[in-house]
Amino acid sequence: MELSKETLLAMYYAMLRSRRLDERAWVLHRQGKIVFHISGMGHEAAQVGAAFALKPGKDWLVPYYRDLALMLCFGLTPREFMLSLFGKQSEASSGARQMPSHFGLRRANVVSTSAPVATQIPHAAGIGLGMKMRGDDAVVVTGIGEGSTSQGEWYEGLNWAAVHKLPMICIVQNNQYAISVPSHKQMAIPNVADRAAAFGMPGAVVDGNDVLAVYRVMMDAVTRARTGGGPTLIEAKTYRPVPHSSDDDDRSYRTREEVAEWKKRDPILLFKGYLESKGRLPPALNDDYETRVLAEVDDAQKFAEAAPYPAIESAFGPVYAAEAHHA
Amino acid sequence: MPEMTLIEAIRQGMDEELARDDCVFITGEDVGPRGGVFRATQGLFEKYGPKRIIDSPLAELSIVGVGIGAAVYGMRPICEIQFADFIFPAFNQILNEAARMFYRSGGEWAAPMVIRAPYGGGVGGGLYHSQSVEAFFAHIPGLKVVIPSNPKDAKGLLKSAVRDPNPVLFLEPKKGYRLIKGFVPEGEYTVPIGPAHVSREGADLTVFAYGIMHYYCLQAAALVAKEGISAEVVDLRTLLPVDKAAIVASVRKTGKAMIVHEDNLTGGYGGEVAAIIADEAFADLDAPVKRLCGPDVPGVPFSHPMQDWFMPNPEKIAKAMKELAAY
Amino acid sequence: MPQLGESVVEGAIAKWLKSEGDSVKEFEPIMEVTTDKVDTEVTATAAGVLLKILIPAGTTVTAGTLLGWIGQPTDSIPADSAVLPTHAPISADSAALSTHAPTIEPPNHPTTQPPKDLGFISPVVAKLASEHSIDLIMVKGTGAGGRITKKDVLAFIERRKAAPEEALAPWERPGDGDLFRPTELQMGPPPVVPPVVDGGDRGGADSVMPLSNMRRSIAEHMVRSKHTSAHVTTVFEVDMSKVMAHREANKAQFARDGVNLTFTAYFVSATAVALKAHPLVNSTFAGDSIVLKREVNVGVAVSLGEEGLIVPVVKNADEKSLLGLARAVNDLASRARAKQLKPDEVQGGTFTITNHGVSGSLFATPIINQPQCGILGVGAIQKRVVVVNDAIAIRPMCYITLTFDHRILDGALADYFVAKVKEVLEGWG
Prior knowledge:
Chain A is α/β, with parallel strands linked by helices. Chain A contains eleven helices and seven strands.
């Protein structure tokens, strides 16, 4: 399972692009240009590692709001993300009806999501059920935070997946906090993945800041799913180095020392060091990547700022679909 | 034209849709070999097998949530909630997910599915096997709410619901499952979702109803006809989207309107009908709009005399018709 | 301009007590009006701001003329307000104690049909009548309480189609040839309440005012009373000098106790004394007997403006001081206007007083409040020239009347009773 140099660099670029786009969103919020941002920062390794194990266009994704890096890997463009931040016309997920980061992308098999957490888990099971009924060898992946695993929806969705041996993978991105509530107040066990045994499916704990480790665990799960082996619960241990959202102040619930400690294990920093140690990422190439990413982010921002707002009429509807939406 | 019961018509409708489209499948509690606790799916497991007639875990929210996932994947699920009383764990899935899917994704995604639920009292079901839940759901844009009152409509509306590109809540008057019989056309037909039906022409007053109450209203209309009162009976059939034109047209004709439902009065669907009449047919009114509804108590009591007190019946309806006619 | 008395047709504004822009309370005097019969203050019919004075002081106008507008500061005044003569926003003092029916303007357009209560007119009936130019007076109602239903109107239209001559002018319609019938049969029963006519020439059609429950009940009660008792009225004149002096001297003291010392309190007090002195007046005719009432419970008629009137009862009036009576009258009257009376507060009266003088009436012949024996009418207090000890003097005079049931009382005893009331009032202090 040796990854090519090109793949490794593509993973690195995907992580870098997500990070720089994310950072720009915070800047735009603090400039007063946008009203809300919810960050995927720190989760890039978990998401990019997962994405590279999948086949975009064939596999299905039921994401949650931190899955920016996953979305970019599945084909969301930086321009489209910026349109969502600004609530501009032709926003890809919802036509700017939803808040930013409530992802969905029909052309990439990414199902529209809402804000109540864990509601998407039964959907993923239903998609898996459809795949199984049709005999498709596709896989459905769903992302979720560890806090949301307290919801009944999570249990019911995974239970269905296990009972019917559905080609479904649930990646719990355990960043230690549900907004301010630490995971030990969320559950009495050290690992979410320990619950997999109770469902009757394999569970795996992985370092969510190590993109290659996540990729390997994901590859196992994807192979199992594609070959009729059923679902897998993956818990990627990671950290959110920024507040929950643009409206949160994390100083009220955790120390700066704790955050600084985790920043030393920043997934991009770790992967960059790895690539450098293998001689895969000379400084000039990294500079080149940074320049390219910056250009993409600048272009996306300019594009979104110049874009028109949706017409008021687009709030009217349609409320009902007029024709069948078969996949 | 064969005569059959309401439940036979529903079963036949599902059977024909299962045969017509491989994407159609049924899930719910006890829908498999048992054929459903009301026998709505009797024989279908034997005919279509466990892959398409799926006994679900005993968990309503995921019956609907998994159905949503399957629907977005391109399947056409028919999700059975064993009693409407138990639908509320799935309320969030219906309200926040199924009904909003199309609008929130800018028309990219839709959740074409049928949620069947037997509703209503008069069967000795007490507080938790007798509820009428339509008012909660008729408030949800993006959802369609259908309640048949006779076998012909039940089959035709169910087939339309299965083919509708939107989520349809199909509420079945369980007291009428075997009580209400009628002729059902041979061969393929559907009854469109939306239009109400004038089931008895009259001149003196209009009664709006649906489900078993419509059945009772026809009986009551026959009773008062002996006393020279000509009552028009309108079967609303589709509560959402509501057929305003039919409501207004009948009130224009008769000048007097009454709404009958067994759901309790306050906040009930009758209030919506009354408001439509007040908005659009005020100048045609010759009497106050009356509502004959279940009382505002938390449920249908179990013991027979108390249950009879709760339930509207043909005699109560006839009395109210006479009072309105005399106004 | 209120109609200050039965025969009064016009009045002059002596003085505006408020200026445009002043805020006014309901029942607060806002102008002084002079007529050829009485001079009086007219009080506000509503709270708000005096937005506009249409008729300046010193001008004489006919009754029913719009004098000004009271409203909220943000309200706009209708441009054609000057030509709305009858439903004046400032009109008769609705605080008046009176058994008179609310002032109702005579119809501007005499109708050829007997007045008739049409009952509730539903939206569709109104629409059909308008579309088909139907005078609803012509339509027989078969609905609840004789209400005209949609079916009645549709049937009328059908009949009219079938018999187009129905639409002929009255003088072209053939008579039915039955000469010299009793007029009751030709004209129908006499009206209980004349129809209210939307005055002015806006469209020229009469307008129909459905009966409120209160109006219906008053109507029934009044007619029943007239059919029950043998009404006779006797009139006395009272010199109110001592009462006025006492009231002037004690008004402030009562006000400190939170009580508005009204003339009504004096009349209730004097009446209670007279009822104790002549218990036969405090009685009920019971067919084969006369029931003398142990308690002296005096009803006081309170006008609710156009809506009607109500008669709260001062229980055991003979046991109360003037302060107690004034307090009770204040309390009952204010709660009557606020519609907060309890049912038992309008029951159990043994005698009634109506202070019709508040609206300028000099004397009246009120109708007995059944099943009582009598009702005392109190007219307006006016300074009049009188002869005192063979000298001409100016005294505040007031006509009081007793309308009594002649089945119970003979004239002499009735006069003794009123004389007692007069004696108490003239000797006050």
